[in-house]
Amino acid sequence: MAYLLQVDFKMEGPYGEEMSKGFVELAQSINDEPGMIWKIWTEDAAAKEAGGIYLFETKETAQAYLEMHSARLTSFGIQDIRGKIFEINEPLSMINHGPIKNK
Amino acid sequence: MAYLLQVDFKMEGPYGEEMSKGFVELAQSINDEPGMIWKIWTEDAAAKEAGGIYLFETKETAQAYLEMHSARLTSFGIQDIRGKIFEINEPLSMINHGPIKNK
């Protein structure tokens, strides 16, 4: 069963195109993280908030990533980091076409 | 461009199998909501927290759903509802295999 990691935080920037350009290498490195299946990068420039929604193979890999990523975000000067790891209700998510399968 | 809706809240239950059975009709009705592309149902029985991650076709449909859903959750006696609508950074999400396409 896959686990969902939900992260959001306050951030001054960059947003939009500048964000897309600035974090290419970081995004590529995230593909190499143990257990990572996919990530959706989220942003709200008006509210100065950003984050990510991730699918991980196990709770342990999601937890390890959250700890590493929180430390990295803090090193960027980012505060108010909110990270939650959830189980996924598979039968209900399947009804709603949720993309929860590993492949 | 699709928008991501992130919702979480405190809930006494039901969780797990009981949740799967109890919310089938609600899940089916969510497929009929304007602009809804998919939903992943999230739950954490230990923390007594649940929620959903949704993809919507537009910001307006995500906003309308959030308002309706928040009122519905409140009518269920659910409190501390936290809903956020984010833009999606498409280039970075594509690098990380994010399931952000409408089809």
From TrEMBL, chains A, B:
- Determine if Oxidoreductase is one of this entry's keywords: yes
Q: Which GO molecular-function terms appear in the entry?
A: monooxygenase activity
Keyword set for this entry?
Monooxygenase, Oxidoreductase
Looking up InterPro entries in the UniProt record yields: Dimeric_a/b-barrel (IPR011008), YdhR (IPR014910)
Q: Which domain of life is it from?
A: Bacteria
What single Pfam family name could you report for this chain, choosing any that match? ydhR
Q: Which PANTHER family match?
A: MONOOXYGENASE YDHR-RELATED, PTHR39169
Identification of the protein by name: Monooxygenase
